[in-house]
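Hi C.,

You asked whether I'd gotten around to modeling the 286-residue construct. I have! Everything is below, sequence then structure, no commentary in between.
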Amino acid sequence: MFIPDFFIIGAPKCGTTSLDKFLTGHPDVRMASFKEPHFFSQDIGWQVVKSREKYESLFDITAEKTSGRIYGESSVFYLYSDQAISTIESCRSDVKYIILLRNPIDMLLSLHAENRKSGDEVHRSFESAWRNIGRSKRRIRNPVAMNYKLVGRLGFRIEKLLDIVPRERVLFIELSEFVNNWGYVMGAITSFLEIPPSSQVIMPFENMRREYRSITLNRLIASISDIVGPKSRHREILKKIGGVIRKLNMSSQETLGITPLFRRELEMFFADDTQLLRSLTGKRLV
């Protein structure tokens, strides 16, 4: 089976889309044509591309591989799968992994906003969502993304990763480094992947912390995209139509923040895990 040379495996809402776009524009990199296929994460209930044939079709591997060209794939919830990395490693033992990180509380606030936009999250405030984890009886597209207590335990997940993968094959990047000093970070990434530097300019980060007027309408759009699949000839047309509908459905109302008291509660909940994360990665996570 074809296995890419490297994976971006996390964490969600930490800049992985911007990194994927940058690497897509690099002349010596061929990223999967569809971000977040999650082919190797069957165990967490979030597998977008389900067959080997469809997965391999995401890569331009029919032509002869040019010397120095490498292949990559981005699926941020591989980090939370107990089988994804083991499966990848059983197929190929020289794969490299890139993980972007940030303070887990800020990450979860952004993830909550994203879940609101996708239609999976019905609780407008993050505090309400936090206190109701696991209580929803509705069908959820990505169950792991809704388990904020699990997603926020980055230290635990990275410790499990490093039990399988040698530290020298993993690159950790803090989101604040990526945003504020991306030129240096891009140099670190190209050095890690052993490819020449590129003059490709990264797209600026966008903070889309707004909501949809109708969650039901947005869920319908997402469901149609799931049914059509990533390689359908109709996908691009539906994507454009869905984009227009989403813009019309967008509300200007900001996602609610959290109180200092609740933030302190979250800091205490994640304290041990955050300390573990800092010790494993050397990142400050401010």
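If it helps when you're writing up: The chain is about 45% helix and 10% strand.

Thanks,
B.
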